[in-house]
Write a structure and sequence with these properties.
Blueprint: E1 4-5, H1 8-30, E2 35-41, H2 45-60, E3 64-70, H3 76-88, E4 94-97, H4 107-113, H5 125-132, H6 141-153, E5 161-165, H7 172-181, E6 185-189, H8 195-200, E7 204-207, E8 225-228, E9 232-233, E10 239-240, H9 245-249, E11 254-255, H10 262-282
Parallel strand pairs: 1-11, 2-3, 2-4, 5-6, 5-7, 7-8, 8-11
Antiparallel strand pairs: 9-10
Helix pairs in contact: 1-10, 2-10, 6-7, 6-10
The structure holds NADP nicotinamide-adenine-dinucleotide phosphate.
């Protein structure tokens, strides 16, 4: 079997096209588009690329978009003051503080200071807690994007063995909870797990680790769906996932490429969350 590719770029384009109608409807209803403020601290090159891409997408969709770039030497108090100003700004529906922050800053304190109604990254404890309780509001973008991809290929997680590799707060844990909420039987693996044994039973594998080729082709149950969240740079500068793509592709039914798989979905879901937040704040 050679797996069908899941085209993240095409699905993300579909999500963005749907959002354009929401933007037009909001302008007609409240006289302004949804607004997103992105905060970047310091000069991390990857963060600059992500933020530029987020801003570009927001502008393409006709959102209000504000970029606050602070010096790496900014104090916790100054950053918290900016978050409070954005919380109070009625034109701002979504606030995103790009991670990682420089080491002297307490990222958790900053994320907790964001108004949960504007927490379009879904990282605030309130939004994480609502997802935990099975009544999600604003959900972390990457796992939300994976769920949309599964919907697009017609994979219903209910009753299926779904294995998530990785337990970070931004990908693995919310991914496991979204699948559980969709009635999957969920296993979440981490660095102490027997990953091979768990993945071999999986109807769906979501790899979110950050280790190139950790998931080898022989781990994949024939016919399984394979979603590769990993984004790793090889010494030659190539972008690769956590799954050994070619051999896995020979066993899976569907598989995401890297690049062009989950990556484009993350920004599309950020925009979707901003529209969700804007609707909730203005209705
Ligand atoms: P993270 O915070 O570093 O978490 C990695 C997780 O993988 C941890 O739970 C860790 O286990 C687990 N792990 C590490 N080595 C392992 C091993 N040998 N076997 C099993 N589990 C292992 O990473 P993250 O932020 O979740 O990101 C994961 C990957 O996704 C990265 O490549 C990142 O670049 C990528 N990513 C992509 C997108 C996108 O838009 N496509 C978005 C976010 C992240 P412990 O908890 O036991 O340490």
């Amino acid at each position: 079997m050679t797996a069908q590719l899941i085209d993240g770029k095409a699905i993300a384009a579909k999500v963005r096209a749907e959002l354009k109608d929401d933007v037009a409807a909001m302008i007609a209803r409240v006289g302004r588009p949804p607004g997103i403020a992105v905060v970047r601290v310091g000069d991390d090159p990857a963060s600059k690329v992500y933020v530029t891409s987020k801003e570009k997408t927001a502008l393409e969709l006709g959102f209000g978009s504000w970029h606050h770039h602070l010096e790496a030497t900014v104090t916790q108090a100054e950053l918290m003051a900016l978050v409070r100003r954005l919380n109070a700004d009625p034109a701002v529906d979504g606030i995103l503080v790009q991670l990682p922050l420089p080491r002297h800053l307490d990222a958790n304190a900053v994320l907790e200071a964001i108004d949960p109604a504007k927490d379009v990254d879904g990282f605030h404890a309130l939004n994480a807690g609502l997802l935990f309780q099975g009544r999600p509001r604003l959900v972390a973008c990457t796992p939300a994007g994976v769920m949309r991809m599964l919907e697009e290929i017609g994979f219903d997680p209910a009753g299926r063995n779904c294995v998530v590799v990785g337990r970070s707060n931004i990908v693995g844990r919310p991914m496991g909870l979204l699948l559980l909420n969709a009635s999957a039987t969920v296993t979440i693996c981490h660095s102490k797990s027997d990953v091979a044994a768990e993945v071999r039973r999986a109807d769906l594998v979501v790899a979110a680790v950050g280790v190139p080729k950790l998931i080898t082709g022989d781990f994949i149950k024939p016919g399984a769906v394979v979603i590769d969240v990993g984004m790793n740079r090889t010494p030659e500068g190539k972008l690769v996932g956590d799954v050994d793509f070619e051999p896995a592709r020979e066993r899976a039914s569907f598989i995401t490429p890297v690049p062009g798989g989950v990556g484009p979905m993350t920004i599309a879901m950020l925009m979707s969350n901003t529209v969700t937040a804007a609707k909730a704040r203005t209705s």
